[in-house]
Amino acid sequence: WSSDVCSSDLVLEDNPLLIYCLAQQISVYALIDDVLARGLKDQVSHQIKLINYGDFVDLTVKHPQQIHWGA
Predict the structure, then answer these.
(1) How confident is the model at residue 33, as a pLDDT?
(2) Cβ atoms of 28 and 6 closer than 8 Å
(3) Confidence at 11, pLDDT banded by 50, 70, 90
(4) What is the DSSP string of 33-62?
(5) What's the CA gap between 2 and 4, in Å, rounded?
(6) Residues β-bridged to residue 28
(7) CB-CB contact of 30 with 44 (8 Å)
(8) Could you tell me the maximum CA-CA distance found in the chain, to the nearest angstrom?
(9) pLDDT tens digit string along 35-51?
(10) Residue 21, phi then psi, degrees to nearest 5
(11) Measuring CA to CA, which residue among 11, 15, 20, 16 is closest to residue 43?
(12) Considering 11, 15, 19, 69, which has the largest number of Cβ atoms within 10 A of its Cβ?
């Protein structure tokens, strides 16, 4: 698990899951448009990589399997 596109709760500085992910050296990304739409710009951890939709597409191509639902 090398990257994750996160929900709005995860990008907040004091979120325990964010702290865990960063301690495990997991890259965490958030869509800048989503952050702005939710009014979270000033609350986002500086360790979150803010990306645009083009960057999101690039990450999707680079990491095609985001979630594995099978056994």
Answers:
(1) 95
(2) yes
(3) low
(4) HHHHHTT-TTTB-TTSEEE-HHHHHHHHHH
(5) 7
(6) 4
(7) yes
(8) 40
(9) 999 898 888 888 889 99
(10) -60, -45
(11) 11
(12) 11
